[in-house]
Amino acid sequence: MAFCAATPTPLAQYAKLLRTRPDVAAANVGEGSPRYFPMYTVPLRTLLEMKRVEPHELLKAREVLVEFDQSMGNAAFVSHQWISQLHPDPEFTQMQVLQNALQHALDNMQEIPLDSVTQWSTPTAKPLRTLELRSKPLFLWYDYFSCPQLDRRSNQLQGAIDSIPAYVEACAFFFALVPVVENPESSQLFTPSTWSERGWCRLERVCRELSQEESWIMVKGSADLELKLGSGTSMGEGGVGEGKFTVPEDRLKLLPVLLAAVRRKLFHLLRTGDFVGYRVLLNKQAALFRGLPLEEFLQPIPTIDPSDNEDPRSLVAKFFHQNGFTGISQTDHGGWTPLHYAALAGDTLLIDGLLKQQADPNCNSKKGQPRVGLAARTSPLSVSCLFRHHAACRLLISAKARVTAGFLQPPLLMAATANDPEGVRLLCEANCSPDQRNFLAVSAVEAASTYGSLEAIEELVSQQQARGDAIDLSHSLHWAMLVKGGNSEVVHRLLDLKADVNDQSFDWPRRTKALRVLCMLIVLQHRCGNVNTMTTQVYHAEGATPLMFALISSQYEAAASLIANGAKLDLQNARGWTAEDFVRDHDVPDFLQAAFAGGVGRSAECRKVSRLSLQSNDDGYVAMYL
User: Fold this and answer.
1) What are the distances in angstroms from CA 557 to CA 77, 216, 224?
2) N or C: fewer beta carbons within 10 Å in the chain?
3) Backbone angles phi and psi of 504, in degrees to 5
């Protein structure tokens, strides 16, 4: 009996065309991101010998700079904040951290460990072997060295800006240099949180996540490096256009840069047959370009269909055409249905069209999607909540999407993670309890604390108070110290809400039988030598204080604020460890070294750091050449 093969979708046909027709691929993808200014770099040995940070023109005149070509070895892109208006690092503070971190990684580390978000969300992920850093000569791209500085209105400078995707694409490694430092005037503090808020720093990070090498390395201290894998580690932080800019008009400068990077990535994913990655990026454009004046999203698959964009059936047909779907209930290799991708796009007309064709608003994903930080068994409503698509959320709720459903990531926890008070409000108005917990007994306010989502915390507290109850904040400080929620503003607000700075009752590993088994396995890993941030947190959880968790996860700004607000240094956890034990033999910032050194006024530097981080910091300084 003969069987007819299924007709390839337009998506599959076009992907094949890109692979087999170099002319078509070149017309859409090119031979690489274009460079409008040479890629000037500094050899590693030269950088390690530097005593001050000098501008591009001086280094070029002394023939220190090297125009990089990949035949020479590997390059590394260094993203950082400028800590002065006219100079990125006038006291050589950040650069010395980078020098020490690189030397430490090359001499003393076998691998750069994964960050705790990746450890929890992607158990199969692997650390970066430092052998890869040593395998070839290393050259570093750093804006003040690599771009014209003395004439900031020159065409060459604009060419360098437009070349950022090409520079990132050419780099085997990407370093985010984010130590906790203050500016020379002692009026401003720069931290990992402030770096992640800057629009230009976000652009650099997103360009890395859109390159073929998606991983990047965060450098928090001289011996404190962690590997992050893809955009899932940045969940809840918002888009590039929602970042902070010293000059608001810079948003217009970055739009064509980001647009070119997204376009290239889409065609690369098509050409390599990664249809799941293609669908994620295609439908993530609404979130990626939020805050930017983009009139029309990219639609790579050619079409000549002139049908009405307002007609639901026509919209669904076009969506199927671009995404390669053939049925409403189809699940792709990534475990998502068409409705999941429509929820990611936040397109209400499309969602309505899918629902009218009997798409199930409560269908759960079959697999996790690390590109957006979402686990298996996640609903379309949770997807829309994470990306703050409020109209889409309302539409799904009106279609009977369950607001309380969800395994690890129910809708309310996603809105809390995304720091979205409006999302929290509309879910609570749909009868979702503000104290909802997921399968692992994590509450919405704990999820918000974990990601430093202060506005979501406020809304959850308000919603619970409106019901006549007080929300449980007993372990919120611990959760804020687990991953990246630790900043001074969150610490102070949680303390205002009566969280205990010296609480030792963290009970999450014992909340359910499943958790007890899971945590026993993690403790066993730790005892067998598989020591990382996640296993250390679980191994030392019983009796731990928030300060201990902050030190384990290297959240130094938060640690300073906890000490400034009365965190005791001599308390012991159930394993007999004090806070000082977690920093012994570690190169922590000076303000923490002073706190643990003892003597009168030992917390004075921590109080200063806490005060600086709370001061108005609307925009700060970013690389002024941009």
Assistant:
1) 25, 22, 14
2) N
3) -125, 25
Separation in Å, CA 99 to CA 95, 157, 221: 6, 26, 10
| The amino acid at 319 | F
Q: Give me the pLDDT at residue 460, please.
A: 97
Q: Of 271, 290, 312, which residue sits at a domain end?
A: 271
Residue 30: predicted pLDDT? 55
pLDDT, tens only, 143-188: 999 999 887 666 788 888 889 889 999 999 999 999 999 988 878 8
Indicate if the alpha-carbon torsion angle 88, 93, 99, 103 is positive or negative: negative
Please state, in angstroms and rounded to a whole number, the distance separating the CA atoms of residues 328 and 304: 23
Cα 474–Cα 477–Cα 481 angle in degrees, nearest 5:
145
d(CA 135, CA 191) in angstroms, rounded, equals 31
Cα dihedral 359/360/363/366 (nearest 10): -30
Name the most confidently modeled range: 18-32, 108-122, 283-297, 377-391: 377-391
Question: SS3 for 249?
Answer: coil
Three-state DSSP class for residue 79? strand
Answer yes or no: are the C-beta atoms of 309 and 315 closer than 8 Å. Answer: yes
Three-state secondary structure readout of 335-370: CCCHHHHHHHHCCHHHHHHHHHCCCCCCCCCCCCEC
Average pLDDT over residues 28-35: 69
Element (H, E) at 345: helix 338-345
Question: How far separated are the first and last CA of the chain, in Å rounded?
Answer: 66
* Three-state SS at 140: strand
DSSP assigned state of 531: -
Domain count of the chain? 2
* Strands (E) located in 205-244: 215-221, 224-229
pLDDT tens by residue, 258-272: 998 899 999 999 999
**Is residue 440 a part of any domain in this protein?**
no
Q: How many Å apart are CA 621 and CA 201, to the nearest integer?
A: 11
Question: What was the pLDDT predicted at 24?
Answer: 73
Residues 6+ positions from 133 with CB-CB distance below 8 Å: 74, 102, 105, 106, 173
Using the 3D structure, point to which of 245, 271, 297 is the last residue of a domain: 271
Q: Is 92 a domain residue?
A: yes
% of the chain at pLDDT higher than 70: 93
| CATH number, domain with residue 498 | 1.25.40
8-state DSSP, 218: E
Q: What is the pLDDT of residue 600?
A: 52
Quick check: is 585 in a domain?
yes
Specify if 289 maps to a domain.
no
Residue 3: per-residue pLDDT = 43
- pLDDT score, position 625: 36
Residue range(s) defining the domain that contains residue 101 = 40-271
Is the pLDDT assigned to residue 121 strictly greater than 80? Answer: no
